[in-house]
Amino acid sequence: MAKETAKGGKTDLINKVLDIELEWFLTVNPTLTAECQQHPKALKLMRSSAFETWSEESLALYLEHLADARSKGRNLMKEKYAKIQKSIPCENYSDTLKDSVEIYKSWQEEARGKYPRIFREGAAGFAWYLRCELDTYSPTVLESYFNDVKAASLEGRNPVVETYDRIAKKLGYSSLEEWHQKLEAKG
Questions:
Q1: Closest CA to 36 of 181, 167, 182
Q2: Given 17, 59, 171, 176, which residue has the most CB atoms within 10 angstroms?
Q3: What is the pLDDT, as a whole number, of residue 35?
Q4: Tell me, what's the pLDDT at 2?
Q5: Contact assessment for residue 91 and residue 54, using Cβ atoms and an 8 Å cutoff
Q6: 92, 143 contact by CB (below 8 A)
Q7: What is the mean pLDDT of residues 131-136?
Q8: Mean of pLDDT values over 49-77
Q9: How many CA atoms lie within 13 A of 123 on its CB side?
Q10: What is the reported pLDDT for 187?
Q11: Selection from 71, 65, 78 nearest residue 132 by Cα
């Protein structure tokens, strides 16, 4: 995978991850998913923007994990949504997972404080969604992901805001701030 990463780069890794995730996502029972299942471009927009905040190492490990899961007949998207709906239990109760969720929850709360028109939902729902997703990650992917989270925290970054700034730009706004201001003006 390292050679592939060097050759294709982060964008290539993201596209390969999205191909697998979208394939899986489209097979999830629609009653368990958000409206975005009817809009695959929305999934790609959201997920690619989030993955752009990850390190190449984490992306490469995640892609390997997805390929391994696929080879075993698993669909991690179905598993994630089943966990969200509490149809199957979460299994990972590690500090790494818990700490990742707590840090992201604080970033979500910070983002909501700055951009309430964009972040209307509270951090609790987001935290449960993230917790269920991280529960599908292998220990290796989760550890690398947590290293990314710790690095962002040490650098004073907020990947939630970074993700939504990328989404705003892909939607044609100059920034998350402009997107929020336009929503504020609409009332």
A1: 167
A2: 59
A3: 57
A4: 41
A5: no
A6: no
A7: 97
A8: 97
A9: 14
A10: 75
A11: 78
The gap between the terminal CA atoms of the chain, to the nearest Å, is: 48
Phi first, then psi: give them for residue 117, nearest 5 degrees: -75, -25
Residue 126's contacts (CB-CB under 8 Å, 6 or more residues apart) are 104, 105, 108
Other beta carbons within 10 angstroms of residue 33's beta carbon come to 19
Q: What are the helix (H) ranges across the chain?
A: 2-25, 40-51, 56-71, 76-84, 95-114, 123-134, 139-154, 159-170, 176-186
Residues 6+ apart with CB under 8 A from 7: none
Residue 80 C-beta-side C-alpha neighbours within 13 Å: 19
| Residues 92, 121, 42, 26, CA torsion sign | positive
φ, ψ of residue 156 in degrees (nearest 5): 75, 20
User: How sure is the predictor about 5, in pLDDT bands with cuts at 50, 70 and 90?
Assistant: very low
